[in-house]
């Protein structure tokens, strides 16, 4: 042990050093060596290091030392430890209590589940160190006795500060810290963070722009990551039969199984909850000791798998981003990332969970599934080693956070001059540029909604009858969305939760989904109680539920490197090299075996062999087949989303109809009417003024559901939604019209731009294209790279062909669906009935005609249109559709009724389904299911 190793601990007093010896801390960890000196000197400090590298003790040892020194701890709270997840409190408490007991300091926890008795006790006799959440701190700032206790705070530790800095929860906390400063005066701020791209921005967020030391561990040099695409073996062919899946997917399961077997304890990260469930169901089928952990499982289920993994009962834990944060699950010696992690920061956070004790190397494997996935993972792995990390996107000036904090300030302080509230808010780093006039506008809106009272004569804010209720109903900036509890109908056990939009769009009795790695069939849905009752089924296939949750966006820099890899490979192929030769060359530069890189390069080889242009970082390739137009563009999710919206808006104007849009990090796919020529697409790209991008996108947003959804959430934080809604639900169109030209509308637009779009990036692409710096090539027909996107990136773990269980479910559902039967000949006979009660060849009992239209059960307006003597344009359209449906039923009988009962399947699609030649009835239902899924994917374009 060198003098440098122990020097960090010499900054601490004898009492704490004695505790270190007792605890077995002989050598400081890397973050402790770097950060304890400035922390012990009382400096604001941001500590950047991997999870589990001793960050908590790094922060708290100097805090404990300060609290036991001199006259000892104060009467009120001495230190706050703020953590974004309540689940972390359990771990923090266990780790910090020992120090508290040894040093005779009281450590306690306070969050939403803390009992009223315990809260009262904390207010009467505040603990020396309180572990809490951002939301609970908001509540504490309004309590009279708690505010007195908070006046003694000398240290605030913010754990996982990188996570908070990029969210509205963090923006709210930044103002909360300034409100605490108004109470306690200056206090030391300590931030604990995973690796970030712009540490100074996060330090400014933490300190409010004040002086702040940054102490960072170089994680990249301690990361050993390998990218692997498994080769399909004979064993995978056998395994595929057992798992009811294809051999390719079976090879993924087999490789992960083998990696888990090679290590003692493995975390398996996936990007979505549905992938966790689908993969978990495969491991359950193989009877492997691997648990599933994600946010939609019940707290009890999560704690159970955490404890079993920590105890060694489980060899692996399948998890989502919930496990990126510091939940203590014991030692992890390997991390598997299934499919590309999408971002360098995510890879570092996830791989950083492995082998970090005593500064060991963190080892991990990225298991990839297709060429895009492999090239993306290679780029991310290289960038991680080189320390090329994405910056943290701080929410600058969130107006709904200001609306949330103004009533909280007034509730806690009483009558407050507007200028004093403005001063507190704008000291917080994310709000440093918000104009006073904007804050006054927000105060006026809150006044109109009776949340606060604005006394204009005295320029003062005062409480109203609604202030207290508003503050306590809005402690959190996490949007309120209904969640349904899932219960096993036999045992009444709570399985987990499903989001409201999933239940509305997918769930109904008879449907099958996967949760907790097991298959469930829905028995009953109770909307009043927000519960879904289910029964388990023994079947490894099935539809996987789609939880709400945005796809992790791939940054422009990562997508650009994928384009660069293609650009390096292209001349080698054109010079006669094959995929194996190019793969060998690339595997020398990237952390992957030859097979993995060669397998991905075969797609590029096919592109060159087809004598079509290669899309690269400096070349766009526009291809077209029929109505489908694909712009191959390696710019990442946000730039492609922005360019896609510009294209769909301007082409939609020309066509006078909607344009279908799907994007991924490497493609912009448009579904255009036949009236749109390829030259129209080129013209938009070459002639659109780059400076008009923002305006075009905002105009396109005006009628979008995405903006309306955000606007509803934002206006709720202003207390405005109830006033505008009245007693009933409000249509998106009316909501957007009612709130235009308000701070709420401005904030909703800002949020969409911040979360989903990159206007500056899209503007630069158009500038490069129009200056000739970026090449644009057109190709007729689809190319290997153009078709290698979303269609091949679907949920690989769901079987391609619906299995018998799902087919049976579809049959049952359609047979039990209700339809309206209407005679289009006499128009007198109309009946509402279930599909299963319809005769093989329905006919009218009034006139004997077989021209019977089968309509949706809510299509009464269509019936009225058919019966109307004089029809307007819309009624003519409805009547024509009903006649087409009747013609189909007359020709094909009950088969047509079944097809048209499916979701999103009208007469046109029903005719296409019926006209196909099939060997068995199951294929008929498979085709219906395929059309339903296609409708679900594209519904937002046509509704």
Automatic annotation (TrEMBL):
Residues covered by the Helicase C-terminal domain: 255-400
Keywords: ATP-binding, DNA damage, DNA repair, DNA-binding, Helicase, Hydrolase, Isomerase, Nucleotide-binding
MF (Gene Ontology): ATP binding; catalytic activity, acting on DNA; DNA binding; helicase activity; hydrolase activity
Domain Helicase ATP-binding: 36-214
Biological process according to GO: DNA repair
Gene3D superfamilies (UniProt xref): P-loop containing nucleotide triphosphate hydrolases (3.40.50.300)
PROSITE patterns for the chain: DEAH_ATP_HELICASE, HELICASE_ATP_BIND_1, HELICASE_CTER
Family of this protein: Belongs to the Lhr helicase family. Lhr-Core subfamily.
Protein name listed in UniProt: DEAD/DEAH box helicase
Organism this protein belongs to: Halosolutus amylolyticus
């Amino acid at each position: 042990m060198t003098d440098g190793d122990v020097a960090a601990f010499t900054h601490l007093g004898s009492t704490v050093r004695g505790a270190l010896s007792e605890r077995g801390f002989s050598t400081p960890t890397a973050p402790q060596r770097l950060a304890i000196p400035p922390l012990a000197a009382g400096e604001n400090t941001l500590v950047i290091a991997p999870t589990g590298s001793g960050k908590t003790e790094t922060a708290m040892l100097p805090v404990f030392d300060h609290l036991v020194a001199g006259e000892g701890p104060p009467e009120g709270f001495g230190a706050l430890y703020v953590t974004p997840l309540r689940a972390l409190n359990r771990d923090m408490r266990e780790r910090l209590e020992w120090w508290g007991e040894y040093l005779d300091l009281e450590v306690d926890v306070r969050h939403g589940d803390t009992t009223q008795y315990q809260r009262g006790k904390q207010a009467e006799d505040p603990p020396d160190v309180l572990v809490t959440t951002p939301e609970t701190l908001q509540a504490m700032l309004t309590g009279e006795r708690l505010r007195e206790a908070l006046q003694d705070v000398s240290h605030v530790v913010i754990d996982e500060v990188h996570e908070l800095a990029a969210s509205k929860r963090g923006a709210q906390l930044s103002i909360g810290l300034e409100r605490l400063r108004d109470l306690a005066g200056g206090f030391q701020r300590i931030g604990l963070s995973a690796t970030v791209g712009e540490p100074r921005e996060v330090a400014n967020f933490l300190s409010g722009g004040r002086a702040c030391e940054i102490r960072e561990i170089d994680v990249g040099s301690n990361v050993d990551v390998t990218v692997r695409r498994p080769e399909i073996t004979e064993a995978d062919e056998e395994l595929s039969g057992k798992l009811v899946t294809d051999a390719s997917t079976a090879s993924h399961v087999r490789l992960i199984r083998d990696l888990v077997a090679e290590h003692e304890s493995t975390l398996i990260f996936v990007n979505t909850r549905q992938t966790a469930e689908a993969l978990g169901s495969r491991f359950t089928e193989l009877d492997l000791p691997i648990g599933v952990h994600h946010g939609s499982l019940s707290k009890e289920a999560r704690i159970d798998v955490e404890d079993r993994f920590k105890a060694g009962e489980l060899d692996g834990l399948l998890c989502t981003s919930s496990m990126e944060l510091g939940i203590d699950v014991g030692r992890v010696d390997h991390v598997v990332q299934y499919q590309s992690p999408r971002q360098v920061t995510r890879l570092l956070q996830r791989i950083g969970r492995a082998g970090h004790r005593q500064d060991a190397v963190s080892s991990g494997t990225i298991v990839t599934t297709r060429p895009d996935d492999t090239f993306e993972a290679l780029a991310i792995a290289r960038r991680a080693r080189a320390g090329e990390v994405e910056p943290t996107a701080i929410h600058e000036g969130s107006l709904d956070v200001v609306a949330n904090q103004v009533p909280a300030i007034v509730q806690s302080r009483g009558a407050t001059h507007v200028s004093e509230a403005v001063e507190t808010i704008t000291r917080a780093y994310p709000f440093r540029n918000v104009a006073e006039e904007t804050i006054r506008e927000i105060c006026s809106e809150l006044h109109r909604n009776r949340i606060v009272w604005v006394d204009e004569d005295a320029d003062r804010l005062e409480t109203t009858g609604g202030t207290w209720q508003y503050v306590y109903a809005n402690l959190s900036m996490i949007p309120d969305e209904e969640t349904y509890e899932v219960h096993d109908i036999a045992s009444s056990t709570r399985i987990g939760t499903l989001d409201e939009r999933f239940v509305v769009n997918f769930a109904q009795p008879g449907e099958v989904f996967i949760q907790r790695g097991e298959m469930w069939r829905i028995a009953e849905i109770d909307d009043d109680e927000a519960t879904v009752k289910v029964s388990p089924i023994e079947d490894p296939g099935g539809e996987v539920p789609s939880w709400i949750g945005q796809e992790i966006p791939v940054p422009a820099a990562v997508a650009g490197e994928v384009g660069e890899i293609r650009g390096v490979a292209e001349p080698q192929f054109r010079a006669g090299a094959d995929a194996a030769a190019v793969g060998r060359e690339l595997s020398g530069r990237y952390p992957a075996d030859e097979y993995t890189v060669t397998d991905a390069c075969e797609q590029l080889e096919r592109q060159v062999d087809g004598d079509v242009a290669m899309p690269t970082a400096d070349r766009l390739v526009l291809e077209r087949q029929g109505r489908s137009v694909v712009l191959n563009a390696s710019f990442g999710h946000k730039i492609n989303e922005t360019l896609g919206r510009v294209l769909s808006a301007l082409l939609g104007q020309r066509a006078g109809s909607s344009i279908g849009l799907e994007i991924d990090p490497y493609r912009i796919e448009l579904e255009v009417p036949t009236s749109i020529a390829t030259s129209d697409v080129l013209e938009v790209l070459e002639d659109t003024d780059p400076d008009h991008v923002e305006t075009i996108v905002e105009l396109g947003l005006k009628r979008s559901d995405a903006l309306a959804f955000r606007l509803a959430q934002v206006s709720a934080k202003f207390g405005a939604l109830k006033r505008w809604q009245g007693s009933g639900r409000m249509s998106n169109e009316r909501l957007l019209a009612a709130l235009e030209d308000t701070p709420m509308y401005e904030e909703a637009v800002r949020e969409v731009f911040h979360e989903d779009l990159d206007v500056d990036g899209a503007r630069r692409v158009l500038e490069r294209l129009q200056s000739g710096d970026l090449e644009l090539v057109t190709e007729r027909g689809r190319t290997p790279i153009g078709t290698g996107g979303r269609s091949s990136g679907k949920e690989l773990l769901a079987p391609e062909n619906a299995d018998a269980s799902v087919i049976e479910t579809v049959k049952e559902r359609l047979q039990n669906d209700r339809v309206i039967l209407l005679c289009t000949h006499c128009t007198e006979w109309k009946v509402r009935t279930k599909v299963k009660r319809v005769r093989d060849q329905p006919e009218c009992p009034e006139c004997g005609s077989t021209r019977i239209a089968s309509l949706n059960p809510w299509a009464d307006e269509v019936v009225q249109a058919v019966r109307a003597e004089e029809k307007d344009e819309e009624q003519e359209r409805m009547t024509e559709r009903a006649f087409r449906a009747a013609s189909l039923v007359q020709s094909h009988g009950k088969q047509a009724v079944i097809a048209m009962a499916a979701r999103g399947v009208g007469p046109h699609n029903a005719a296409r389904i019926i006209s196909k030649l099939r060997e068995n009835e199951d294929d008929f239902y498979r085709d219906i299911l395929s059309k339903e899924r296609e409708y679900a994917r594209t519904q937002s374009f046509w509704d």
